[in-house]
Design goal:
The chain is α/β, with parallel strands linked by helices. Helix content is about 40%, strand content about 30%. Helix 7 runs parallel beside helix 8.
Length: about 325
């Protein structure tokens, strides 16, 4: 049996965009214009994701992440290249593909707004034709991983943002899909709820061996959930490996945190020890300021990603 959940080979997606003109005359002209330009949203991406992996699919806004996810879910057809999800071509077998994936896109809930959560679960059970025994086992698994009793009989419109997000993730896993796509699952949530959702995702991945594709700008999600990250920028894959391997590129970087005597907040400076002597920087601080405290920290995942976007590995 194949261990590959997702296979993409030389995947490309282009869009034709009208070259628009300004003003009223320009708008009228655009109605009849054939002046189009081609924009490459995804360029020659080759990736293989094995079953059971949690992979962070990262990149700045406009990098091509959402376009790639839409091709994996079957919403978009590639311009060229090969894509297989659970052995299926997503855009050709959309119905079968949808039966074995789960999706959570930001704040777009798939639950019924005016129904209690348990009734939404029952409707999803019937839609996906989940056997009753498997459904009940999944509900019991949910109970063992997170305290769902307070929300089971609450309508979605009465839930807090964190409760709705938690419920949407539970709904995405309910039919035991092979792959779940999570797009910014913890956006706007407090620290406590973020931690609860991260623990839930890890628990479901561990118990069900579900492949998880995570897109996020929250590096806390990446550190907590992902052993492997794929980074895309301007449509091209620029990194595919584990986080620690990425940090090794920047092993000489440290974050110097200095708190001055007249301030409560910390001032932070990223230092490359190959080119800058840390003690020299500290000495310069002490010449002009009264330093209350000093910390030297390893470079964070967030700083590493930022450096990579800036072309720091070259």
């Amino acid at each position: 049996m194949s261990q590959e959940a997702i296979v993409m080979e030389n995947l490309c997606k282009d869009f034709k965009v009208l070259n628009r003109h300004e003003g009223l005359k320009g708008s009228i002209r655009d109605l009849f214009s054939r002046d189009y330009k081609t924009i490459s949203a995804v360029k020659d991406v080759t990736v293989t994701v094995n079953k059971g992996e949690i992979v962070g699919y990262l990149g700045p806004n406009g990098a091509g992440k959402s376009t790639t996810i839409k091709m994996m879910t079957g919403v978009l057809e590639p311009t060229s290249g090969k894509i297989l999800v659970n052995g299926l071509v997503p855009y050709k077998d959309r119905t079968k593909n949808c039966e074995n994936i789960g999706v959570v896109f930001g704040q777009r809930s798939q639950l019924w707004w005016s129904l209690p959560l348990i009734e939404s679960f029952k409707l999803l059970r019937d839609l996906y034709m989940v056997p009753r025994k498997e459904y009940e086992e999944m509900i019991e698994l949910y109970r063992s991983l997170v305290d769902i009793e307070p929300v089971l009989h609450k309508t979605v419109r009465q839930m807090s943002l964190g409760q709705r997000t938690l419920s949407d993730i539970l709904a995405a896993f309910l039919h035991n899909p092979g792959i779940v796509f999570l797009d910014e699952p913890t956006i706007g949530l407090d620290v406590s709820m973020k931690s609860k959702i991260r623990d839930l995702i890890l628990g479901l991945n561990r118990e069900k061996k579900t492949t998880v594709i995570l897109t996020t700008h929250d590096m806390g999600d990446v550190d907590a959930l992902c052993k492997r990250i794929i980074i895309i920028d301007k449509g091209r894959k620029i990194y595919d490996n584990d986080i620690e391997h990425l940090k090794s590129y920047f092993g000489s970087y440290r974050t110097l945190r200095v708190r001055l005597d007249n301030k409560d907040e910390w001032e932070e400076t990223l230092i490359n020890e190959k080119t800058t002597d840390v003690m020299t920087v500290i000495t310069e601080y002490q010449k002009t300021h009264k330093v209350k405290d000093i910390q030297l920290q390893e470079i964070s995942t967030e700083e590493v990603i930022k450096k990579l976007y800036e072309g720091g590995t070259k």
